[in-house]
Design a protein that fits this description.
Elements (H helix, E strand, L loop, with lengths): L15 E7 L6 H18 L12 E8 L3 E4 L5 E6 L11 E4 L5 H4 L3 H10 L5 E4 L3 H7 L7 E2 L6 H7 L4 E2 L5 E4 L2 E4 L4 H14 L1 H9 L1
Parallel strand pairs: 1-2, 1-5, 2-4, 5-6, 6-10, 7-8
Antiparallel strand pairs: 3-4, 9-10
Helix pairs in contact: 1-6, 1-7, 6-7
Length: 212
């Protein structure tokens, strides 16, 4: 499967960009941890903390949040610490919003606190990304109407049935439609995150992170 996206246009980033990854009980841990590590590693690279890196400054401040904050148990049983949802109009704007997936998504998308927060925050973000079945959260929040998207191949038919206005393509690793990026299952979130790093900091940085 090949990723589908527009031609990469470098968006220079010289200050820390706030990346917020949204988790929930029953999430797939790699959906959150994979992107978290990509963005964290990219920060080391661009700040010169990796041998041979350019040290141009910038990078990312990455937060993992959930509806109630505190410890969250992933679908595998792994426990992870999360922060509370930041205020939609907080002092530090959210640049990139990442919505994780996992079995728990089908309960999480009926959490009124979480869904109202996503709906309020997403329009203020430069871009929104979903990993695996995190696409269901974005669809439930009304962010994907009329857009071409992807998700885990085993949930693509369900996504199309529940949200008929979407153009669901189960084949790509990730799809970009404007400011919305969606990825296929689990590890595809790493590929998507590398593409976001490439958009911000160029191919060389993204390749360095991929090899790290």
């Amino acid at each position: 499967m090949a990723p589908v996206q527009a031609e990469v246009v470098l968006t220079p980033v010289t200050e820390l960009s706030h990346v917020v990854i949204v988790g929930f009980p029953g999430m797939q841990s790699l959906d959150a941890v994979g992107p978290f590590e990509v963005f964290s590693s990219a920060t080391q690279v661009v700040q010169g903390g990796v041998q041979g890196a350019r040290g141009a400054g910038g990078g990312y401040q990455v937060s993992l949040v959930s509806s109630a904050g505190g410890a969250v148990t992933c679908e595998s049983g792994l426990g992870v610490a999360t922060a509370a949802l930041p205020a939609p109009t907080g002092e530090q704007p959210i640049d990139t919003l990442v919505l994780a997936g996992g079995w728990g998504v089908f309960e999480a998308r009926h959490d009124p606190v979480l869904m109202s927060w996503i709906a309020a925050v997403a329009p203020r973000c430069r871009r929104v990304a979903t990993v695996c079945t995190g696409t269901f959260l974005a669809a439930q929040a009304g962010l994907l109407d009329g857009r071409r998207v992807t998700t885990h191949w085993a949930r693509a038919e369900r996504l199309q049935q529940e949200f008929p206005s979407l153009i669901v393509d189960p084949d790509p690793i990730y799809v970009r439609d404007g400011a919305i990026w969606t990825s296929a299952g689990v590890t595809a979130g790493i590929d998507l995150s590398l593409a976001l790093v490439e958009q911000d900091h160029g191919t060389s940085v993204a390749q360095t992170v991929a090899r790290w």
